[in-house]
């Protein structure tokens, strides 16, 4: 005995409507996907630009800070040297005065 051919689940017009609905939904999802990819691309480019700008700004500020610290270090070394020279001169004067008083 031959099996009986199953009956159609839906009519041709229903099948066409379902396919049209699936196609429209797929189109909408592709559109949303494209928009999301474009937003991601834009955000990635914006983030890269901001990162490059921030790195340059940070490097500039760090360079200025290094220059300032070097300038202050040199100034403090010069002042320390002058203080040492003055202390040496005062010590010499002190010993000269003590020597004169003893004589």
TrEMBL record:
Pfam families: Tektin. PANTHER family: TEKTIN. One of its GO terms (cellular component) is microtubule cytoskeleton. The keyword Cytoplasm applies. It is found in: Cytoplasm, Cytoskeleton, Cilium axoneme. It comes from the Eukaryota. Keywords: Cell projection, Cilium, Cytoplasm, Flagellum. It comes from Oryzias melastigma (Marine medaka). This is Tektin. Belongs to the tektin family. GO terms for biological process: cilium assembly; cilium movement involved in cell motility.
């Amino acid at each position: 005995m031959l099996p009986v051919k199953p009956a159609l689940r839906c009519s041709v017009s229903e099948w066409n409507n379902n396919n049209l609905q699936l196609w429209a939904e797929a189109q909408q999802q592709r559109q949303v996907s494209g928009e999301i990819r474009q937003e991601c691309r834009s955000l990635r480019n914006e983030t890269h630009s901001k990162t490059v700008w921030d790195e340059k700004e940070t490097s500039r500020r760090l360079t200025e800070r290094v220059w300032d610290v070097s300038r202050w270090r040199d100034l403090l070394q010069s002042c320390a040297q002058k203080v040492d020279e003055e202390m040496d001169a005062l010590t010499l004067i002190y010993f000269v005065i003590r020597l004169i008083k003893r004589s």
